[in-house]
Amino acid sequence: MKITKDLYQSSLALLTDFYQLTMAYGYWKSGKADQEAVFNLFFRKHPFQGGFTMAAGLEYLIDYCENFNFEDEDLAYLASMKRKDGSPMFEPDFLKYLSEMKFTCDIDAVEEGTVVFPNTPLVRVRGPLFQCQLLETPLLNIINFQTLIATKAARINLATLGEPIMEFGLRRAQGIDGALAASRAAYIGGCTSTSNVLAGKLFGIPVSGTHAHSWIMSFETELEAFEAYAEAFPDNCIFLVDTYDTLNGVKNAIKVGQILRSKGKEMLGIRIDSGDLAYFSNKAREMLDEAGFPDAKIVGSNDLDEHIISSLKSQEASINVWGVGTKLVTAFDQPALGAVYKLSAIKSETGTWEPKIKLSQQSIKINIPGIHNVKRYYSNGKAVADMIYLENQVIDSKSTMIIDPMDPTHRKRLMPAFYKEEILLKTIFKAGKNVYQIPTLDQIRDRGIAQLESFDKTHKRLVNPHIYPVGLEENLHHLRMDLVLKAKKLDNGLE
Ligand SMILES: Nc1ncnc2c1ncn2[C@@H]1O[C@H](COP(=O)(O)OP(=O)(O)OP(=O)(O)O)[C@@H](O)[C@H]1O
Ligand SMILES: O=P(O)(O)OC[C@H]1O[C@H](OP(=O)(O)OP(=O)(O)O)[C@H](O)[C@@H]1O
Ligand SMILES: O=C(O)c1cccnc1
Question: ipTM higher than 0.85?
Fold first, then answer.
């Protein structure tokens, strides 16, 4: 699908922070606009205090880059911006430069559905400084949100032990695109369907639903309401049983289930949306089984998240389909991922690449310099460790060390010869041309599920997970340390 064209019917070139445009202008003014640079998009900490993160949003990113050009109305708006003294904010020649800009970057990125870890690049952009800079904000906007929601959905899917999840978030999502992007990401993370019909149309996500309390309340009795629904949708009956008295609601559902059966149709199940979901689902299960409806599903909903679902599982609740809205699509307990986009190398006038480092008082904020990639090593189908390495580095296949970027005393020896390896950054754009075959949403969702299966369950624990090893290859570690020490000396005037 064409996100920009189908959703916005407009260029999104101005969907960036103003300072990106003022820097772009500055680069142009100082003759640096076309200097080549490399930026990496990465996050520093898993969301939800978890042990893994699931990447999502690449298809939006691709669409954004393919449509990354300034149209006449964008330029007219920029031309209308003024400085304090009334002069134009941007010179006409700069606007002409913008109007002629063609997207020419190389982009490498992890595929959607990939399980990713702190400090490893999710996206690497290489190209003219000017373009790389303008892309910072939209890329972060896209990847941060969808990755966050895909991760939340994956956690919920772990809690349901793979039982179907109906995503019900639209009414409480963060606005229109917040809802659409969340439905997409939630499906990638493992939801089975969405209630959002536009998301179904745009992305091909299966659409499903039950009915609301208002349906019941609009009839004289609950029984009449169920009968009328069965008349309208005999193949799609999931009766909401808790409007007045849940167990009486189950009795009414059974009555209408029997009528449906007499007509050769089968009730799909019931939904419980309030009260003690463990108690009522177990009672309802007994009643449905006794009445000859052992296959009728019990959908549970009401402010669910992975923790409540886990608790309901441990209470042996008889829910087997989970309706989850607000807490999923708003990432309730952590509303932002916090990925950043940092310069890691720049090409000098002599044509050599200079790795770049940004110092910080907090060592977690010192970036990883150079042009790097990530390798995941697998042993017997299980992920063993991720190595961040300089892309032109030859790795010793007999024995190599990875070093924790946050704690250099924390090291792990690997024997690549014994492992299968996967290079995580895949080429998406080469000199501005899309060379990547975008998978279908179902393929992405399958990748997410397969990726998670390749990790030990200790890393997937919802609370206090075991930390998966991720480290810098030795040469990259030394390069980083040398640059840090050099920068510190310069800072202190010691050189
Ligand atoms: N057995 C249970 N164990 C743990 N949490 C539960 C259980 N049953 C329900 N919950 C959760 O408790 C929270 C509040 O439930 P509560 O009973 O207050 O809702 P309610 O008042 O019945 O519903 P509503 O306000 O929507 O009518 C919800 O998040 C719900 O998912
Ligand atoms: O609880 P969520 O995970 O967000 O799932 C969506 C909720 O939306 C509906 O409730 P409604 O809007 O009627 O409000 P309610 O909470 O008063 O039932 C539905 O009955 C779910 O409870
Ligand atoms: O189809 C449903 O049951 C539904 C849809 C949106 C929100 N809550 C429930």
Answer: yes
pLDDT 10s digits, 298-353: 999 999 999 999 999 999 999 999 999 999 999 999 999 999 999 999 999 899 99
311 pocket-lining for ligand 1 (C-beta < 6 Å): yes
Ligand 2 proximity of 275 Cβ (cutoff 6 Å): no
Q: How many structural domains does the chain have?
A: 1
Q: What is the pLDDT of residue 297?
A: 98
List phi, psi (to 5°) of 382.
Answer: -105, 135
Using the atom order of ligand 1, give the atom closest to the CA of residue 277: 8
Q: Tell me, what's the pLDDT at 366?
A: 87
Q: Is residue 284 part of a domain?
A: yes
Contacting residues for 8 by C-beta, under 8 A, at least 6 apart: none
Residue recorded with tokens 């940004």: 358
User: Residues 260-298, buried b or exposed e (16+ Cβ, 10 A)?
Assistant: beeeebebbbbbbbeeebbebbbbbbebbeebebeebbb
Q: What are 444's two structure tokens?
A: 């992405």
Provide the 10 A C-beta neighbour count for residue 11: 16
Where residue 306 sits, what CATH number does that domain have? Answer: 3.20.20.70
- CA-to-CA distance for 122 and 438, rounded, in angstroms? 16
Of the candidates 127, 147, 151, 179, the one whose C-alpha atom is nearest the C-alpha of residue 51 is: 151
pTM for the model stands at: 0.97
> Are 157 and 321 a contacting pair, CB within 8 Å?
no
Is 237 within a domain? yes
Which whole number is the average pLDDT over 241-264?
98
Ligand 3: residue of 183, 301, 304, 322 to mutate (most ligand atoms within 8 A of CB) is 301
Backbone angles phi, psi at 270, to 5 degrees: -130, 165
Residue 116 within a domain: no
**For residue 41, is it within any domain?**
no
pLDDT, tens digit (0-9, with 9 covering 90-100), for 179-224: 999 999 999 999 999 999 999 999 999 999 999 999 999 999 999 9
Per-residue pLDDT tens digits for 110-119: 999 999 999 9
Q: State the residue range of the domain holding 222.
A: 151-329
In the structure encoding, which two tokens stand for residue 100, read together? 């002629």
The binding-site residues of ligand 3, defined as CB within 6 angstroms of any ligand atom, are 168, 195, 209-210, 323, 325
